Amino acid sequence: MVVVAAVDRSDHAKQVVKQGETLAKQFDDELHILHIISRSEFRNLQRENIDRNDEAIDMESIREFAAKQAEKAAEDIEGPYETVGRVGDASSDVVSYAKKHAARYIVIGGRKRSPAGKAVFGSTAQSILLNSESPVISIIKDES
């Protein structure tokens, strides 16, 4: 089985990866660190590269860029891991990746940002929580 740590490009991603590493060690599972670039972000990167170099970026290069973002989130961990970069819809791709790899857990980031101090999940986190067949752990970052 695997533990999937789904990360964005924030500093909070390192905490998500650290928790994923802890779970993977506890269960002797593989750790997969997943970063997904949205299709709109992909198009923006395409435009920027065309403006700069007069050539398009191929999909594999964008996936490698996404995997490098996952790698950055993993710079503080010691154990083995695999980084995965994808282009698509973050919530559905995290859920389908976890299902395909029989994930024991999915670890995601979240923010505490309601006036009452309760965790309020963004649409991506909420969609993962509602649609995943695997247990989801949300590492809450206090926004106060």
From TrEMBL:
UniProt-listed InterPro entries: Rossmann-like_a/b/a_fold, UspA
CDD domains per the UniProt record, alphabetical: USP-like
Keywords: Plasmid
Keyword Glycoprotein: no
Pfam families, per database record: Usp (PF00582)
Residue span(s) of domain UspA: 3-137
Gene3D superfamilies: HUPs
Family membership noted in the UniProt record: Belongs to the universal stress protein A family.
Entry-linked PANTHER family: STRESS RESPONSE PROTEIN NHAX (PTHR46268), UNIVERSAL STRESS PROTEIN UP12 (PTHR46268:SF6)
Protein known as: UspA domain protein
Species: Halalkalicoccus jeotgali (strain DSM 18796 / CECT 7217 / JCM 14584 / KCTC 4019 / B3)
